[in-house]
Fold these 2 entries.
Entry 1:
Amino acid sequence: MAATSSDKLIIFDTTLRDGEQSPGASMTKEEKIRIARQLERLRVDVIEAGFAASSPGDFEAIKAIAGIIKDSTVCSLSRANDRDIARAAEALAPAARKRIHTFIATSPLHMEKKLRMTPEQVLEQAKQAVRFARQFTDDIEFSPEDGSRSDMDFLCRVLETVIAEGATTINFADTVGYGVPELYGNMLKTLRERIPNSDKAVWSVHCHNDLGLAVANSLAGVMIGGARQVECTINGLGERAGNTALEEVVMAVRTRRDHFNLDVGIDTTQIVPTSKLVSQITGFAVQPNKSVVGANAFAHASGIHQDGVLKARDTYEIMRAEDVGWSANKIVLGKLSGRNAFKQRLQELGIHVDSEAEINAAFARFKDLADRKSEIFDEDIMALVADQQQSHEQEHFRFVSLAQHSETGERPVSKVVFSIDGKEAVSEGQGNGPVDATVNAIEAKVASGAELLLFSVNAITTGTQSQGEVTMRLSKAGRIVNGVGADPDIVVASAKAYLSALNKLHSKVEKLNPQL
Ligand code: KIV
Ligand code: ZN
C-alpha cells in the first residue's frame, strides 16, 4: 500500500544511546559531542543523547549536548520512575527543544520475570511516569518495551492511558528483533485502529536487527502501521545485532519516493561523513558490502556492469554516490598549505575546534603529517583532529615516542616513551611482531591486566602512504572499551590506540544498562 498524501517522516537518531549500548561502543563526553554536532549537520529531527540516570558521564554528556544543539530536539531516555525522569529533565534543561523518553516493559515475560510486577502495577507506573514527566516538557515519548511480544489488549490499555496523560509519541519497540515485517506492521495498524485517542500521538517504530529485519520491519511499520517516526542509528549500531540503520531507511524512502510518498528532512550528503565519524570513534568498522555506506556500495567490479555504468549510470546505480556524501579521495591539502586553508577545510568538514589555540595545535600536527605524507585527504584531517581531541581529554596515559626494531629471524623489540599523569616513562618489550612488542612494552610498565579482544588496522585512504587507523578493544572486570589511534606508522598508531583504550579503562565510568 502506498501512502496517499506526502507527509513527514521524523528521523529519531539513537546512536548515542542504543548505539552506545553495543559492547565496546562506549564513548566519552567529547566524542558524543562531536557525533551530536554531526547529527545536527545531518539534520536529524531528534537526537537521543543518552540515558541521564545511567551514569554521571551520561548525564554530563546529555547536558553538554543540550546546551550546544540548536536545530534538533535533544532527548534523554529514562525508566518509568520519578528519579530517572527528574534526572533526564535536569540534563535536558539547557536544550532549545527537549524530549523525555520514558519506557517500561509490557510483555508477560518481561513483567513477570524481569520486573516482577503485575500488569496492573505496570499500567499504573506507566501512567504516573508520563504524568510526572509532563511537568518538565510537553514533548513526551513513551515506549512499551518488548512491545511486539506483548498482549494486544493489555497494550491498548497502557497506550490509551499514557496518551491520555499527555504522551505525544508512542514508540512500538521490537526490543528483541522478534518481529517480521507484515506482522509487526499489522500489529501497529491494529493498535492505531483500536486505541480511541491514537490520533493524539505520533507513532514510532524501534526495531532491533536480531533476524536482519530491522529496516524491513521499520518500513513495514511506516507503510502498514502508519508510523511517522523511525528510530535508528548510524551504521545500524545498537544492542546485540544492532538497530535500524538510519542510512538505509532514509535512502529507501528517498530513492523509492514513488512508493513511500514521504518527506525526510535529512541532508543525505552528510550520511557518509557521519558514518565515518561514528565508525572512527567507536572502532566499529563498516563492512565493505554494507548498503549506502560500505566501501563497495558504489563499486562496480564486473566488466558488464562497468560498461553499463559508463554508458548510462542508472543501468546499475539507483542512487548517486555523491548524493550520500561519497567524494573521490581527493588531495585537499599538502605541505605548502597555510593555516587559513587548513582552518577553512576544518570548517567545510564541519569539524568544530574550540579555540584558536586548538587550531594551532591541530595545524602543527597537520604540518608534521604533511612532512611524512605528501598528499593529505579529508580522512587524514578527520583522523588527526580525532587523535588530538582524544589525547586532549584523556590525559592519564599519553604517547610520546617509539623506537622499534624488526629483522627477519630476530625477535622484534620496541621501546615506548609515554607519560603517566604527566610523568615520562620509558619501557621496552619484545614480542612475536612489532605491535606485540609495543603492547608488551607498555604493559611492562602499566600492568593493566586487561584482555585484548580486538586488534584491527584499517588504511584510512588508498596507497601505502596512507595513515593506518588502529582499533584496540580491551576488556577488564566486565567493562569493554575501544581505543583508536592513527599514524602513517601503524606501530605508532597501535601504541596510541592501546594507550587510548587504557585511558578509557582508567576513567572507570560505571554505567547502568536501561534494559537490565
Ligand atoms: O529496544 C528497546 O526496547 C529500547 C527501548 C528503551 C526503547 O531501546
Ligand atoms: Zn533498543
Note: The chain has four domains: 10-282, 298-326, 331-389, 391-507.
Entry 2:
Amino acid sequence: MEELKVTPWEVSGELNEASYSKLVKKFGVELITSKLLERIEKIAKGKLHPFLSKKIFFAHRDLNLILDDYENGKSFYLYTGRGPSGKMHIGHLLPFTFTKWLQDTFDVHLLIQITDDEKYLIKSTRTKKEIEHVAEENILDILSLGFDPKKTHIIKDYDNAKELYYYATDVAKHTTMSTIKAVFGVTDSDNIGKVFFPSMQIVPSFLLSAISGKNLRCLIPYAIDQDPYFRISRDVLPKLGYYKPSSIISKFLPALQGNSGKMSSSVEESAIFLDDSEQTVKKKLMKYAFSGGRDTLEEQRKYGANPDIDFSFNVYSFIENDERKVQSVYDDYKSGKLLSGEMKALAADSINLFLNQLRQNREKVKNHLSEYMFNPNDFVGHRM
Ligand code: TYM
C-alpha cells in the first residue's frame, strides 16, 4: 500500500480514520473534545456547525485559549487562505464555509491569504500572468460564500509584498534550514524560493498584531495538509513577542471514488469543480461516486445502505442546512427505502442548487471586490 504522506505540497496514501489518528500523533495536534464542543455551542447559542458535530473539523491547537479569552471579553482574528493553483473544487470550500460560520458566530476580522507566489514557485508550470488570472477567479469563488466585507481582508502575496516581506524576514531569521528540510522535505535540488516561501504564509498569523501594536490571538482554520506551516509559526512567534497561533483542523473531503484519497484538482474525475455544469455534476456522481449501497436492488431494499461511507449522502449532508431533512434521507437510505441511484440524484440536485446560488452571488461580488482588499491602514493604532 502507498505510504501515507501529507504535506502542503503532496498528499498521498490512503486517508481513513487510522491515517488521521496517525497524523494527529505525528503532527502533535489535539482532538476536539466534547467539552470544547459544548463551549463553542454555548457561544453559538445552541447551534453547533455540522462540520463540528460530524467531526469533519476534528483537531486543534490551543483552541481552548481562544475560547478562554473570548469568554473573558477578549477578541481574536481569523486567518485562512488559498493557493491559486487552478479551478476550485467543493473540497476547497470546506474550510472557507466553516471559516464564514466562525466569523459570523464570533463576529471577528478575517484575513484570507492568496499565495500566488507559492503557486509560481512550487509545483507549477504556469506563468505569473496565468496565476494572477486564476487568483482573481478563486477570490470571486471564495467571496461568493458571503463573507462580511467590513471584516474580511484579502491579502494577495504579490500585491501586499511590502507588508508581508517586511515581517517574513523576521520569520526567516528565526527559522533554520534544518527545520525547513525536516518539516517540508525540501531537498538540495529544490529551488530556494521553496525554502523562503513558508515565511510568507506564517506572516498573517501575527500580521494584525504587528500592525496594530496590540498582541492579538489568531485562529487558523485549514485541512490538515497545511499544518506544517503553523507548527513552525508556533515555534517562531513567541520569539518575536507574539502569541502562538491557534488552529482548527479538518479532514479532507474525499475523492468522489471513496476514501482512498482526497478530492484533488489534479485528478479531474476525483472532484466536483465549482464551474462544472449541471450535467457534469450529475454524470460525475452517477459514474464515480462511491456508494454505500448494496450490489443488487433486492439486497438494497432488504438490508438498506450504509450512508456514513456514501459520498453522495455525505456531500448532501454538508450542503443541506435543514437537519431534519438530512436525518430523514439518512433513515430512508439506511432502511432501504431510498436506492443508490436516487441518493445520487438527490445529491446532484442539491449540489447544483448550491453551485447555482454561488454563481449568482459571484456576479454580485464582482462589483465590490475592492471593499475586500487588505489595507494595512485599517489596523494601524489599535482600531480593532
Ligand atoms: P490550497 O489552495 O491547497 O487549499 C485551500 C484550503 O483548502 C483545504 N483543502 C481541502 N479541504 C477539504 N478537502 C479537500 N479535499 C481539500 N483540499 C484542500 C486546504 O487545507 C486549505 O485550507 N498554501 C495554502 C494557502 C494558504 C492557507 C493559509 C491555507 C495560505 N495561508 C492559511 C490555510 C490557512 C494552499 O495552497 O491551500
Note: The CA atoms of residues 181 and 188 lie 9 Å apart.
